[in-house]
Amino acid sequence: MVIKGFQKVSLIDYPGKVAAVVFVGGCNFRCPYCHNRDLVLCPERLPTIPEEEVLAYLEKRKGLLDGIVLTGGEPTLQKDLSHFAPKVKSLGLLIKLDTNGINSLILSSMIENGFVDYVALDIKAPLDGHYGQMVGLESFDVSFILSSMKELSTSNIEYELRTTVVPGLHSEKDLLDLAKQLKEFAPRAKWFLQDFQPKNCLEPDFEKIKPYDNIFFENALQKLRVYMPKVALRGGVSV
Q1: Rounded distance between C-alpha atoms, residue 202 and residue 30, angstroms
Q2: Quick one: DSSP state of residue 35?
Q3: CATH number of 3-172
């Protein structure tokens, strides 16, 4: 695993668990509002943390940590993911995977082999022909995302869907369109909206955007719950 960042303890990244967070470099998306710019654009410039160092820390913290979070970047791009995960599991730790959903076959393999216990699947926008534009690609086949969603909805592991809401990219109508689509493919899923934070964005101009306020989310959530009852707001909201 090419590890580019390591947070030794987090109380918020794995719901209900005390976890360490492992950051990998590289991503196949170019979401302009992404706040992990260096991990996406130039991971080679960041120091690499030896896998052995991370595993040694996790070994010493057995009994104190519940698990780890694999995030990035996009973890499913890592060739050694299927080798690293069982090493973590052998320590008796849970694994949460943050993914953009593009590698449904790898996700399926992780689930089948018991290498993942919780998945957070990012849903960037309504699942239509504009998805590629939202993630900085000229074209994109949303069937990859739908396949990942199907894998999760038919599995026995915990999972959530999450969407970062950015003014200028996401309107209330966009969220309603997405809610109707999610109802079809994952009606019982937990869906978290995350308020956009304008810092360290992949596209610097996005740092000038003012996030939505409480009123926007309060109004939107009432309408979205008609289609997705388990939708909620996560994280700080601007005032």
Answers
A1: 8
A2: S
A3: 3.20.20.70
